[in-house]
C-alpha cells in the first residue's frame, strides 16, 4: 500500500487487512518511534485496534535503527506471518524502506571515515544547504526523491558517490535479492491541489491535537536523527526564537508538501501500481478486491 503522505493509506490498509483477515506491517520509518505519534500521523488507538499492526511505536527516539536492521526484522516478521496468512499488508510512504523489504538492499560500501569527516566539516561550516547543493549536482535523480532535510541521508549518498564514482540512484536501483513472496502494489491518487490541501489541513489538525506539546517534550533529543524531520525541526526553530509560531507551522506545511512531491516523483516511475481515486467509493473498493483476487494465486 503506497502513496504520498496524507493520501489515506492507513484507512485503505486497514480495510484490506479486515477483508483478508490479516495483519499490517508498517514501513513508515517515522512511525517506528513511540514518542512521535502526533507529528508522524501514526495510526490512532482505534485504528490499531481494527487490525494488528507491526513496527508502529516499537522504538524510542534514543534507539539506533538502520534500514538494514529494518529489512532483517521485517523479513523475519513476514516469514512468521506467512505461516498463518496467505496475504499480508505492507503500508508506508518511506520509499527506501519499502524497497528494502520488496527487493533487498544493494551491497553498498561501508562508510569511509575520511569522507565522513570531510562531509561533516562541510555540514558544520557551510550548513546542510551545501550538502544539498553537492548532491543535486552529482545525482539529481536521487536528490529529487531524498528527504533532503535529513543530513544523514545526504552524507551517506555523497560518501557512496565519492567512493564509487557512480550515482547513488543507479546503485540502489538494482535489485540484489529475490523474495519468495509475490508483491502487488496498490495506491491512492488525487489531483495535486487536493493532496496539498489535505496535507495543510492535516498539519492544522496535528497542531490542534498537541504537536507543539509533543515537540516540547522531545526538544532535549533534537540532536538525534529521528527528530531531524518535518514537523519537529521547524518547531525547534520556533523554540530557538528564529521563527514565530505561524511561520513555523507554514514551513511544516510547505516541507510536508515538498516531501509528498518527492514521493510522487518516486512512484511515478513505477508501472505496477493499481490506483484508487481519493475518496474512493464502495464500488471502487470492490473493483480493487476483484483485481487483487485475480492476481493472487496461492499454492
UniProtKB/TrEMBL annotation:
<keyword id="KW-0067">ATP-binding</keyword>
<dbReference type="InterPro" id="IPR027417">
    <property type="entry name" value="P-loop_NTPase"/>
</dbReference>
<comment type="similarity">
    <text>Belongs to the IPP transferase family.</text>
</comment>
<dbReference type="InterPro" id="IPR039657">
    <property type="entry name" value="Dimethylallyltransferase"/>
</dbReference>
<keyword id="KW-0547">Nucleotide-binding</keyword>
<feature type="binding site">
    <location>
        <begin position="5"/>
        <end position="10"/>
    </location>
    <ligand>
        <name>substrate</name>
    </ligand>
</feature>
<keyword id="KW-0808">Transferase</keyword>
<keyword id="KW-0460">Magnesium</keyword>
<feature type="site" description="Interaction with substrate tRNA">
    <location>
        <position position="94"/>
    </location>
</feature>
<comment type="function">
    <text>Catalyzes the transfer of a dimethylallyl group onto the adenine at position 37 in tRNAs that read codons beginning with uridine, leading to the formation of N6-(dimethylallyl)adenosine (i(6)A).</text>
</comment>
<dbReference type="Pfam" id="PF01715">
    <property type="entry name" value="IPPT"/>
</dbReference>
<comment type="subunit">
    <text>Monomer.</text>
</comment>
<dbReference type="GO" id="GO:0006400">
    <property type="term" value="P:tRNA modification"/>
</dbReference>
<keyword id="KW-0819">tRNA processing</keyword>
<dbReference type="GO" id="GO:0052381">
    <property type="term" value="F:tRNA dimethylallyltransferase activity"/>
</dbReference>
<feature type="binding site">
    <location>
        <begin position="3"/>
        <end position="10"/>
    </location>
    <ligand>
        <name>ATP</name>
    </ligand>
</feature>
<dbReference type="InterPro" id="IPR018022">
    <property type="entry name" value="IPT"/>
</dbReference>
<feature type="region of interest" description="Interaction with substrate tRNA">
    <location>
        <begin position="28"/>
        <end position="31"/>
    </location>
</feature>
<dbReference type="GO" id="GO:0005524">
    <property type="term" value="F:ATP binding"/>
</dbReference>
<protein>
    <recommendedName>
        <fullName>tRNA dimethylallyltransferase</fullName>
        <ecNumber>2.5.1.75</ecNumber>
    </recommendedName>
</protein>
